[in-house]
Amino acid sequence: MKKLAVAVSLATALLGSTAVYAADVEVVHWWTSGGEQAAAKVFAEEFNKTGDTWVDGAIALGETARATVMQRALGGDPPDVAQFNPGRQYEELIQAGLLLDLTPLAEKEGWDKFIRPKATADKCHIDGKWWCVPTNIHSQQWAWISNAAFEKAGITEIPTDIDGLVASLPALKKAGVIPIAVGGDGGGWQITLLANALFLNILGAEKREAVLKDLDTKVAAGPEVTKVFETIRALSEYSDEGAANRNWNDTTALVLNDRAGFQIMGDWAHGEFALAGKVAGKDYTCALGPSKKPYISLGGDIFVFFKQNDPEVERAQLSLASMMVSPEVQVKFNLAKGSLPIRSDVDMSAADACMQIGIPLLDDPSRVVPSDSTWRTEAFQQQENALYSDIWFNKDLSIADAQARFVDMIANAN
Fold this sequence. Notes:
50% of the residues lie in helices and 12% in strands.
């Protein structure tokens, strides 16, 4: 009886401990599409297993979510955790002293030893301290192609570069499908993403960096940028009337339902195809670039952890940070998200044909480039959205005038 009493007392103490050391953690993110929700669910379920609780704060559209977080943080009521993009806004949070320093956890777990490539770690490891958790590697410049739509158009060999896709537009239109699917919601970020893919393919990595990072107005006024803008205009002639306010995942649905030929979108679209049960190589083709010699841009999601007054919340924040980079969760999450893991020491044998295109490129420094968002302010991104949307939708805007406007943007970017 004494042993039973001790056991009961111990169990009661443990239960009491669980109750005392459980915390609700509010996580703000913009993963609202079907595929994104499936990926977020991985994090939520794995975190809830620890005894703490993921309180979901999904807000549609990245710009809106970031603006909401910034407003709350600067107003003294930040969420516990928030999804962010590397860039100027995130750096402002560091400078304002609002973020929890993750350095002790990162050094204990050796993040600098397993997070790859170094540029991915560098987004969070700034001036010797860790300020965020990178969860995945996203590359923006992919083409998602409906095999059935191209077959309907009589095109038996799927093009995987931008010139081949542009050449296929008339045949796709004649076949009665939407040649290129695009959406204009959120101020036009989808068209900006397409434009940035063209910048990388047409200018190459060096000249792209000269324009977007070094703000070289001579390159901005040059013939390669002219070709970028001409290609945007050429593609725009083969979109559909529903493009203006359509979100990205509804645009992706046009391709996976074979109503459109192709979409240029980041690899988060991959999760939509997976969720729909579509098979890469059979139902659809994925082309990185789209280019014959593709680059992989190091975009990706990061999570920041805001300072809180409750030590139990801080403990739970650190628990979540540790879980996000753990090997098992990295595999589960990235298979659902369609992105690449930040670790090289995980088993990605279950990765499909699209993911297998990107994985080896991470080990080739000549094919890895920074995400353009690393260099841009939020204000400049809004200017880009407006310019590229005008090229797409406003046929009265000449290419020459559009490029002059771009040169002026570059000249005054800072």
